[in-house]
Amino acid sequence: MTGRFITLEGGEGVGKSTQIRALADELTVRGIEVVVTREPGGSEGAEAIRELLLHGDDDRWDARGEALLFAAARADHVARTIRPALERGAWVLCDRFVDSTRAYQGGGGGVTDADILALHRFGSQNLWPDRTFLLRVSPAEAARRLAARDIEGSDRMGSKPDEYQARLAARFDEMAAAEPLRWRVIDAGAAAPVVTATIVAELQDWLS
Ligand SMILES: Nc1ncnc2c1ncn2[C@@H]1O[C@H](COP(=O)(O)OP(=O)(O)OP(=O)(O)O)[C@@H](O)[C@H]1O
Ligand SMILES: Cc1cn([C@H]2C[C@H](O)[C@@H](COP(=O)(O)O)O2)c(=O)[nH]c1=O
């Protein structure tokens, strides 16, 4: 595969979608074919599973059920959207990927990393991002941004309790520290264009 697979990770409201859009613009003006996608979703089947995951009562699924559904959605997304794009040389920018399952259903929900990785090997044939950006902001800043954005309330996954959010944030930090060649930790508390410039600087090795 000749393209590049880049993922953005982090908690709710840290600015992943905002940065993916800005990064896509930055890469497009450099003549790169960019595919912007997201999880859960990014293919017809995966978008249908997204509906199951994000709507309904808090206890609609337990963490194991969620892990299976996210893995099934990802299998379809990888097979139908991500791999074909990478094979034709596009850069794929994905809003969340398997590291979100490791943080949310793993760190937050208690599913073991070994089980999540086994599902990933089977479902997505062990496809891993080439680079992953962890966007970090303080919980207070994330809460401010979400309050401004989600005036009508959050979805099922966004309504998890604070201690769940704290466990998943710790898990993201742990994963980034364990694999520094793949991860880049970004201070996303600055103004959006400053954050975009930081991310682009972290891609210079592929751009020059
Ligand atoms: N650097 C920034 N400074 C201030 N506000 C920001 C910044 N980046 C994004 N925002 C705003 O914060 C809100 C959340 O941003 P965004 O939707 O991009 O986050 P996200 O990480 O994709 O969230 P989620 O995981 O919940 O989908 C939006 O209203 C967005 O306009
Ligand atoms: C991929 C993935 C996502 N989640 C959670 C994280 C968020 O709460 C939602 C997705 O909503 P977004 O506004 O589109 O970011 O789903 C998860 O728990 N596990 C995963 O693998």
Structure, explained:
Belongs to the thymidylate kinase family. GO terms for molecular function: dTMP kinase activity. Phosphorylation of dTMP to form dTDP in both de novo and salvage pathways of dTTP synthesis. Its EC number is 2.7.4.9. Helix content is 54%, strand content 13%. With 208 residues, the chain is an alpha/beta fold. The chain has one domain: Rossmann fold (3-Layer(aba) Sandwich), CATH 3.40.50. Helix 1 packs across helix 8, helix 3 packs across helix 5 and helix 4 crosses helix 7. The chain is globular. The two termini are 20 Å apart. The model has no long low-confidence stretch (mean pLDDT 95). The protein binds adenosine-5'-triphosphate and the ligand Cc1cn([C@H]2C[C@H](O)[C@@H](COP(=O)(O)O)O2)c(=O)[nH]c1=O. The site of the ligand Cc1cn([C@H]2C[C@H](O)[C@@H](COP(=O)(O)O)O2)c(=O)[nH]c1=O has 12 residues, from helix 4.
Question: Summary?
Answer:
This is Thymidylate kinase. Keywords: ATP-binding, Kinase, Nucleotide biosynthesis, Nucleotide-binding, Transferase. With 208 residues, the chain is an alpha/beta fold.
Ligand roster: adenosine-5'-triphosphate, the ligand Cc1cn([C@H]2C[C@H](O)[C@@H](COP(=O)(O)O)O2)c(=O)[nH]c1=O
Report helical residue fraction.
40-55%
CATH level 1 name: Alpha Beta
Radius of gyration (Å):
16 Å
* Strand order in the largest sheet: 2-3-1-4-5
CATH architectural type: 3-Layer(aba) Sandwich
| Main sheet specs | 5 strands, parallel
Order of helices and strands: EHEHHEHHEHHEHH
Could you tell me the number of beta strands?
5
Task: Please report the number of helical segments.
Answer: 9
CATH topology: Rossmann fold
- Span of the ends, CA to CA: 20 Å
Query: Helix- and strand-based class?
Result: alpha/beta
Which residues form runs of ≥5 with pLDDT under 50?
A: none
| Count of folded domains | 1
